[in-house]
Model the fold of this input.
Amino acid sequence: MHKFEMSEPDNYYGYRSFAKGAFEFSRDEYFVHIRWPKGTHVMQADAFLRALQRDVAWNFFYGTVNFDAVFGTMNHYGTVDMFAGRYNDAYRKAGVDYQETYDGGELMALFKAMLHDWTNRGYDPFAAPGETGQAYGRKNGDNEAAITRQRIMAQRMVGCPGDTPIRTDANGYPMNRQFADVPQDQPVIKAEPGFEGEVCAFNLFAYLSRSDVTWNPSVCSVVKESLYCPTSEEFVLPVEHGNDRVEWFLQMSDEITWVVKDKITGAPRATVVMKAGDIAAMPADIRHTGYSAKRSMLLVWENNSSTIPDLIQQGKAPVTPVRF
Ligand code: PHB
Ligand code: FE
Done:
């Protein structure tokens, strides 16, 4: 028994339609259509599927996942809001914004069903545009292997005995075409006698040069609540992420342009061009998306502590890590 409604496949386009609460979703050859009691919204199918794929893979992520300026989810870690126009000043003022709150697992079931039905054979929502077929057209098969990829998470650190392995041709990770110049040598470890099993190191640049996905941070090291989440980026971050905590960006190679807006209203706040070696902290009261003209490497540093969003909401923790 589903906790959402799903139609039979449409006779012409072949896609199913879905409903949860007062939200309705359908797709045709090019577009996804969203309806709620006081409004409607349309997104390009590929843009919708790229955002949906991230929201599914990240289990609603930290804070807000805006698919665009209108539609998205806000994570309360247990329950999740699905909204339209809620964080868009113009929609709010016009009184056409809407949101419902669900059990996170129930909403996830709907999102997985939509992602499954609307992703055609040959389309990979995680891939850069030049590395995938098109999302468009009538229903044509599926791409289950691509959309059920698990986000790679180390227990302690990539390369440690028994942990997530380093990437090689042999374990299915060829070098990406845009990182052909990245050296692949691994560090030489000379541990003191007796510590051989406890010291490990790996080449993070080599690891990222072999990522087959874009805009999908893996967790490469875990120290208490400190998560190092490096990722390879090409084209556009498919969501505008609304932070509920500070997060740090370290640009490891090439260049990303970040467009930063107010989290609640969507008003423009800043454009930040980050070049290799630059470090920035994204405040806890913003949303941001990024543009990477050439595939680049980014380290996202997250504080995973579940106490932070409340402390920030109550004004007990700052929205920026430093005041100048
Ligand atoms: C972010 O929202 O901070 C984010 C998400 C995915 C990425 C990079 C940054 O690949
Ligand atoms: Fe973010």
Summary: DSSP finds six helices and 17 strands in the chain. The chain has a mean pLDDT of 97. Helices lie at 45-57, 89-94, 104-118, 144-147, 204-209, 308-313. The two ends are 55 Å apart (CA to CA).
